[in-house]
Design goal:
Elements lengths: L1 H8 L5 E9 L2 E6 L3 E5 L14 E7 L2 E7 H5 L11 E7 L2 E7 L1 E9 L3 E2 L12 E7 L2 E6 L1 H8 L8 H4 L11 E4 L3 H13 L5 E4 L2 H12 L11 E4 L8 H9 L9 E5 L7 H6 L4 E4 L3 H12 L1
Parallel strand pairs: 2-11, 5-7, 12-13, 12-14, 14-15, 15-16
Antiparallel strand pairs: 1-2, 1-8, 3-6, 4-5, 6-7, 9-10, 10-11
Amino acid sequence: MEDKKGILLESGTNELEVVEFGIGSNKFGINVIKVKEIMIPVPITKVPHSHKNVEGIIELRGEVLPVVNVATALGFEKSTTPALDKFIVTEFNKQKIVFHVHSVTKIHRISWDKIEKPSNIYQGLQSHITGVIKINGDMLLLLDFEKMVVDINPETGINVDQIKKLGNRERSNKKVVVAEDSPLLRKLLNDTLTEAGYSNLEFFENGKDALQYLESIVNEDKKIDEHVQIIVTDIEMPQMDGHHLTKRIKSDSRLTKLPVIIFSSLITEDLRHKGQMVGAEGQVSKPEIGVLVRLIDEHIL
């Protein structure tokens, strides 16, 4: 995992490292940044009446962590070689979770522009796939671990109740551009930001499409701040990630005044410096939608 340190120090390169793991004969991937460690399975304590995807809990260095069975969550068969199974210990959305997989093979370093977004035919709102990577004749599917966790506990997701706690709010026609690859999260962000009073929203599936939209405005000699007031971007997106999008905005003299807020499950104290290095005005961990709304208020109201 030595290379992990290298990419953690860089920012805005539009690259990521992916841990390849197996479920049955299928190959999947998880961003190295989410991975704390990979370990041999240890005995699991079952919890009565827990969600069907949760195998139970383990103790790891004094912490009690839930174990999610990825095969069950995806509707796949159980492992045929349990002695070779692995636990992937992760941290995102400010929580630690263990994912039980059948094998862990290697790490790939790739560019986001080599990752294809899933087709709507097999993706849809309920998909667990966020990207498709073609490597050496194989297909590696990037899994949406955030959705897997929200399926188990909807309280960990974005919800309108957090906005209602902010009280009555004025409507604003200020234009908010959002880059977010998950169809489910785009819908949730649309609902919650509209509830917060921001109804002039423009959504893009990745950083590349969002940047092309912004450049199309300034290429017509229009002032960007008269058409868009703020950018909200995820980090992990096919084609162009949020750090690279932010870097491109901040290095373009016509766009640099646009405030950019990074809204991602990857905002941790260890990784906050990456957003600072590319010039983001704010960074908020999902699913803290109330904090995001207050930051938007601060920058454009």
